[in-house]
Amino acid sequence: MAELLIFDLDGTLVDSRLDLINAVNYMRQTMNLEPLDGERVVRMIGNGINSLIRRAIADADVDFETALQRMKRFYSDHLIDSTRLYPGVSSTLAELKQYGIKLAVVTNKASDAARTILAGLGVDGYFSDIIGGDDQYPLKPAPDALLALQKKYNASAAGCWMIGDHYTDLEAGRLAGFRRIFLTCGMGVTGEETPDYSVDSFNAIPDVIRGF
Fold first, then answer.
1. Measured in whole angstroms, how far is the alpha carbon of residue 32 from the centre of its chain?
2. CA-to-CA distance for 165 and 177, rounded, in angstroms?
């Protein structure tokens, strides 16, 4: 039986691409740089904000810390301008909660931003834990946060699942010894990872875990 489900945030629970694209291009505008194509920005997402900024200014000779702070300030004021839950997220989380399964979020996004987004979209109450990239654990694909949650809830590895849309989620799940679900509707790629299951909608998740 499933005991613990750990979700990524961006590209898994929420479609945040437009707000992230706007924040990156705002930062570039303030540094006299041309805007980047939206899909190009989306391909940069998934490894934390520092990695996103380094990729977003790789074509320019500008100061990293200045770029980082400008992006952070803008994004913190525009976290849910366009960011929305993917279809089926709220109802599916409610269904999973009814099964008595522990639900948690592990994201490489800063924890305050993650909590603000989930609260603003009305789903923070479903999660026992929300762990961000600036908490005490290294960023995914390191499995440390996943293993800490497994230990906290005394869950078996066979009862733990990592659910995400990026190879960082899949690798973290593999290193933790968890089963892994990949959401093809998200923003990321599998890279060299092979998920245990792939689904094209969030509301397909209960069918996958039912029986485990």
1. 30
2. 18
For residue 2, give the 3-state DSSP assignment: coil
CB atoms within 10 A of CB 32: 8
SS3 state at 161: strand
b/e code 135-162 from CB counts within 10 Å (16+ = b): bebebbbebbbbbbbbeebebeeebbbb
Average pLDDT over residues 28-47: 94
Give the confidence band of 184 by pLDDT, cuts at 50, 70, 90. Answer: very high
Indicate whether 211 pLDDT > 80. Answer: no
Angle (nearest 5°) at CA 47 between 46 and 49 = 95
Q: What are phi and psi of 157, to 5 degrees?
A: -60, -35
Nearest Cα to 169, choosing from 136, 200, 140, 133? 140
Partners of 162 in beta bridges: 6, 180
The pLDDT value recorded for residue 1 is 79
Q: Is 81 a catalytic residue?
A: no
Class of residue 200 by CB neighbours under 10 A (exposed 0-12, middle 13-18, buried 19+): exposed
Tell me: pLDDT of 212 over 80: no
